[in-house]
Fold:
Amino acid sequence: MGAAENGRRPFVTRISGPVVTVGGMAGASMYEVVRVGELGLVGEVVRQAGDTATVQVYEDTTMLKPGAPVERSGAPLSLWLGPGLIGNIYDGVQRPLPELMARGGTWIRRGEKADPLDLSRPWEFTPLLVPGQEVTEGQAAGLVKETPLVEHKIMLPPGVGGTVRSAAGKGAYTLNDTLAVVDTPSGPVEIKMLQKWPVRQPRPARARRRVSEPLVTGQRVIDTFFPLAKGGCACIPGGFGTGKTITQHQLAKWSDAGIIIFIGCGERGNEMTEVLREFPELKDPRTGRPLMERTILIANTSNMPVAAREVSIYTGITMAEYYRDMGWDVAVFADSTSRWAEALREMAARLEEMPAEEGFPASLPSRLAQFYERGGAVTALGGWEGSVSIVGAVSPPGGDFSEPVTQHTRRFTRVLWSLDTELANARHYPSINWLRSYSDYLEEVENAWEKIAPGWRELRGEAMVVLQREEHYRQIARLIGPDALPDGQRLFLFIGGIMREGFLAQSAFDEADMYCPLEKQAALLRVIMALYVGARDLIKSGAALADISALPCVGRVMRAKTECPGVQELADLEGAVKDELAELSVRAGKGGVV
Amino acid sequence: MSLRDSGLEYVGASRIEGPLVVVERVRDAGFDELVEIRDRGGRPRLGRVLDISQDAAVVQVLEGTEGLSCGTLRARFLGESLKLPVSESMLGRVFDGLGRPADGGPAPLSGDRRDVNGSPINPVARRYPREFIQTGISAIDGMNALVRGQKLPIFSGNGLPHDRVCAQLVRQARLPGEKGGFSIVFAAMGVKRDVADYFMRDFEESGALERVAMFLSLADAPGVERLLTPRAALTLAEYLAFDLGRHVLVVLTDMTNYCESLREVGTARGEIPGRKGYPGYLYSDLASIYERAGRVEGSGGSITQTAILTMPSDDISHPVPDLTGYITEGQIVLDRDLFQRGVYPPIAGLPSLSRLMKDGVGKGYTRGDHPALASQLFACYAYVKRVRALADIIGEDDLSAGDKLYLKFGENFERRFLNQGEHEDRPVETTLDLGWEMLSMLPREELHRVSGEMLDEHYKKNKERR
Structure:
């Protein structure tokens, strides 16, 4: 109790779960990090009144007592940025989980500390600066080969520029070694591999760019129908069991971004383990290297402290910005932002804030906007181009998309991949509903797409029309039965079925199907559309749908996604489809049995 | 519960409200500390600190506040949070909702006392669950397979036979080809005495009783006690699994009652309610229970969880099943319609799901055709539902011949594949063969989700079909 009597040292006055009130905190700043109690539990100042501060603690506060000492750090919660991030696995406040396990075993004990990056590990450094050179912020002081896939630029921190006084030579250095000294207007600054950056503050860039490249995911329904641009933001809402997580995993595995950051925010432990076990074994389809060599995982599972969950998405996005500033295209996958919003709600309730919609704090929309606004394509301070794409999963309670998190997320993202319970129940994956989803990036990515597959935009448009009409006739068929429809209308049910099974559904477990390159996607769609156009014309001239659906090529089209490995085979199949249709047309023309 | 005799005692409370007691001027007590509360002549009751400041402690009394008086109650702070002594000898015993012996036997001898709240498992330390558990129930093994270390709840409704399904699952669950069954930790929260007795009788009849530890907080016990019951049970389960290397199956029933107790305490504290009055932290709180399952590196044991919850008015979007479904790795949904048509177990085909099935079945686990077969059955059964909806409108007679075939398939699927005896233990091969028999009623060319080789091997032309 000694601390309580000593008026100047901060001490705990009240504990209510993760919210702790601390006295003697005059001069503290918002979001300053403090260590609470004998165990040194990490917390953050979230409110002040006089010399009393309210602190949200990132760890369990069991048996913390009023009067316990509190230690101030004087700085906001900051990340360690430098070589060694890639391939690592962190909790929400950047504690390295493998290191914690090495120290504490299976369980995460309270007050456990570990450096986010290994300070003793030497990295091979190639300098790019010479003494006397004029340098500006964001410029690279040198290069480090972080993994075989990632070249890490050691950048001058934002705000640091001037004349190089001295520069280290080529060689192995640790994170805290001085690599260069730069004379700036405010005095000399040492450049090291290690930088620190406050987690809640966006990193600056020189300018924002218009997005133009699609983020290729190898998933047909996404790339062909609802593409995301590099630097864009997408939202995946879906009730439980609709395959949100597996869709996110697929995207994280196959996206052609240079760096992948996967944030497991309040989700299942075993799912995180699946990622942890799978990623090191999976090979990047473009380079053949293990995916972990370009991936950072942030795992704050649902049973880990809720305050750390709140920070975890900022931790992820700050790391993403750091790599963006080196010129990488980074993709951030947050699963799920609903859990993050719930953490906000939980903390707000503990702080006795006035609730707005469904108990969420009134600041929810602005917090979401701030997060998604940190995505984007930029010209970095160093002059090169980089981007951060964000894909946020949303878990609407009861699958009801009108709830606040889904609604507000839709306002700040331009792509919606709407997951559908009915499709998931029929085990149609990815269960992205093609009629309710949208992408607002079609214009932006058109040029890049057309370069790979000329005619994509038109083909996509025609296919969408077929899918819409299929739904229309399906509704009617639901009332009167499909047999009551004329062949010209049943054709849409027939082609729609082929489109569903043969194009939209894609197996995450089938070697031949899990990744589909853009040119193959276009070729496959072209085959299906050739079948549609040919069949439509035949029916117009009096052929029966039953004869068309009995053609041998129909089954081949259905299975083409797995059985045709490349564009050539698909082109051959397209030829076969046309031939068979032509032959049928001849038979029909001769007045044979049709 | 061995309690230390130390600790300061305070006389009188400033306020008593529902399960909460406010004690003023408490010194040196911690958050979540255990408190023993007595009043004239009454038995001591346990409580814990929910909120503490320099002036007052808010104590949640776990065993009810009836008969307590502001003027005379005495509160003793015990200097630690709730701990459960754990030992192997707890198997075969019955405990109350706080882990104290309730079968008249002595307290288990143990020097090892564990915090019932546990600690989160480091995700890096987890091992991914992969071993298929054969439950002998076709609807589960064939379509929603359970693996060791999974948490798979049963979503049910009032009056549905969830207890019988759960008892059958517990009775029959084993790894194919492995001797020895699971150790079972059973936690009852707010269920009736009959239900607890039913399970106890069933354990007895199947000879499992000496492998079962029961934690009972029945309907007549104070609601707040239930908040600790699953935690005490899981603390023992963790000890058995990760310290002793046993395979533990945890049964939690009924989680809806647990959530109601949580709501009761939240309301008494004047918290801002979330959906349907449940507290905003319901998700995190449920996660702190459900996530205590799985397998970890360096231990041969595992915890497999199955929680029963009754969906109020069969509403799967009610907060309790909804949030549970977001945490657990799938769900087994019982269907009233199937039940009324006499199908047992009435496991709904489409909304049921096992997320870990994909990694626990197939080649090397069950049989190579298992995943594709399950997917095909799902697809066909989904189509049956559509045909039935259509038949409701245009009448069965006007359906196409193909659709009529699907109706027949659906009927057989429910009557022969889903339906089975309560004591019928079907090996997984039988289940799979039965699945193929069902598919063989449909035209071969409509089965797109299974490969040609599988069709060649398993698809039989059904002789009776003309």
About this structure: Chain B touches chain A through 85 residues (CB under 8 Å). Confidence is low (pLDDT under 50) at residues 462-466 of chain B. The domain at 84-360 of chain B is CATH 3.40.50.12240 (Rossmann fold).
